[in-house]
Structures are given as structure tokens and as C-alpha cells.
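Marked as duplicate of an earlier ticket. Keeping the data here for the record.
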Amino acid sequence: MNEKLISLIKTIELNSRLVNNCFENIDQSTAENRINNKTNSMIFILIHLVDARYFFLKIIGSEIQSPYFEITKNIKSIDGFKEYPPLNEILEAWNKSTELLINNFKSINSEKLNSLSEIKFPINDDTLLGSITFGVQHESFHIGQLSLLRKHFGFPAMSYN
């Protein structure tokens, strides 16, 4: 495995645990609840995170499609959702995506990692490594949102354990 990916993999593992912790004791109804009509629900953020991971799998060369591709491909915002899959299934897909990302990272050599990314992200690194780094930061951003929503709904703070 390329040494440049080790810290990112550790962060992906941490993010995976933190997302699960954000949903501890959260039921489907709470996950679908919005604090107002301008914010996303916890479940919408989770589906977005799962889709984002599969998007990054494609960027690094995997052919694996998001399990939610068909229901999200034409949705531009939370208002496009009429019904959500079961929360436990989305969390299973999240956990599966962790395994897939880490396994796919093992096949990335230095040449590929340093090659120009097909997609440009708002980071001052146009390489595949820069794209992966942005993806990991993107997850962390949304974990903050999930953590805040969790507290808003009266649950204890997200645990790092």
C-alpha cells in the first residue's frame, strides 16, 4: 500500500466509526426529521455520504455502483426524496463502503496517486491524492453536521469511542 494513503485510511476508519456513533439510538423517524425546511435530515446526509464514497471508488477505478444510485441519480436536494430506505440498511452500506475503499486503496500505486484527477475539487492539489484527500475532508464536514443534529434531537454528544 502506498504510504501516502496510510493517514487517509486511518481517517476513513475513524470517520466510519464516528458516523455509526452519530446514529447510536437514532430511529428511522428521528433520522428523517428535519429541524426546518432549509436543513438536511440525518438520513439524507448518510445517503449522501454513502453515494460520495462510491463516487470516490469510481474515481480510483472501481466499477462498483452505489446501492442507492437508482434512487439518488435524479435527486438534486432533500426535497426530491419521498421515501427513504431503512436506516439500518444505509448504515450497512456505509460500513461496506469502508471495506471497499480500503481494499481498493491497496491497489493504487504512486504513479496513479500522483496522476491528474479526472474531477477537479476545491483543493490546491489536482492529483488523485488531492481528490481522495478532499473526499475524506468532505466526510468529516458532514460528520460535524450529523453530530450537531444528534444533539439537537436530544441525544448525548457523539462518542469518539
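See parent ticket for discussion. The chain has one domain: 3-152.
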